[in-house]
Amino acid sequence: MKSIKIEVKWAILFSIMGLLWMVLEKVSGLHGEYIDYHLYLTNLFAIPAIIVMVMALKDKKRNFYNGQMSYKQGLISGIILSVFIAALSPLTQWITSYVITPEYFPNVIKRSVEVGYYATTEEAEAYFNYPNYAKQSAIGALIMGVVTVAIAMIFIRTKSK
């Protein structure tokens, strides 16, 4: 357990950050009044997400590998971290959907039909719902986490002399 303690810690911190981001989106009106901008502005979450992933890898390098971490060691650590984040994502999506902003799905369904993104309310409802978002968040967390780590480790790894 000690070998994955850092990944568990950072997965929890990442999840908390994601929930705080959802609160920020809600209070800024992106789940209501300014929902037309949500599609674009929600992608800014990539910035803090990458920062947290890099901080996690640096923590692992410093406090587990004593400052000497190979690309492979970091990649394995990052994949483990990504798996934990993906495992937590259905819970964070549930908290987002039912606690933080329960009005998001009705708002985005209504608006997506109004602007013609979907022809019918039923089509929009088939996409904008908790089960679909829970699956997407888990798969997206895993894929984006692994890609982020694979790139970040090029810079974080200990370079051989």
Automatic annotation (TrEMBL):
Q: Which UniProt keywords apply?
A: Membrane, Transmembrane, Transmembrane helix
On whether Membrane is a keyword of this UniProt record, the answer is yes
- What's the protein name? DUF4199 domain-containing protein
Q: Which residues cross the membrane?
A: 12-31, 37-57, 78-100, 137-156
- Asked whether the keyword Nucleotide-binding is assigned, the reply is no
Residues folding into a coiled coil are: none
**A Pfam family:** DUF4199
What organism does the record attribute this protein to? Aequorivita viscosa
Tell me which InterPro entries the record gives: DUF4199 (IPR025250)
